[in-house]
Amino acid sequence: MENKLHLIVDPLCGWCFGAEPLISAARQITHLDIVLHCGGLFSGPNSQHLDPGMRQYILSHHERILKLTGQDVGENFYTLLDSGKAMLDSSPPIQGIMAAEAAARGTSLDFYQALIRAHFIDGRPVTETNTLQALAEECGIDSKHFSQAFAELDESAISAHILATRQLMQEVGSQGFPSFVLEQDAHMSMINHYQFYKDASAWQKRLQEELARSQEQIIH
User: Fold this and answer.
1) Quick one: which of 7, 148, 171, 219 has the most CB atoms within 10 Å?
2) DSSP helix/strand/coil, 88
3) Strand pairing partners for 180?
């Protein structure tokens, strides 16, 4: 039986950063494929320069994220917020994630995790092409192949990916980012992750129990 964990995220979403340890824990489970879907939280008309009002909103939001997930942003993230140059636009990092997968199959998740750490911990400008190119190289992706794949992804391709993600969210009843959806033999079910934010081991066990339960049902 094929098992998939659909990961619905946005690379600029603070709660997705908070859930990063859960992703790492899920990746350790054998025979579980993880499929990444990006929802474009700040794409298109929602993209914006980070003004003082949004800066304050993000800071207050991250107080809740730290309290509930234990994940703290780095000092350089605050420097990025104070730089006056920060841009909230999910499309360039989504383009980078898609380009990573096109350039080297199976690397999108590595790239995504490197990207959110670069943004929330290192305070790097992940909406800029040079940063995305550097992250690809750090993930071991061939620079030439990544650049070519990145250039070939136009706005319509990115929009199509975001639209497909939004449609998936509607189908499974997802209310936001991140969402974890387990697919087993074409059956999709949302897995509530909120109680596991500070306990990645328990989250991993929860997923393993779901997989074992389904396997038992097939045997019987």
Assistant:
1) 7
2) strand
3) 7
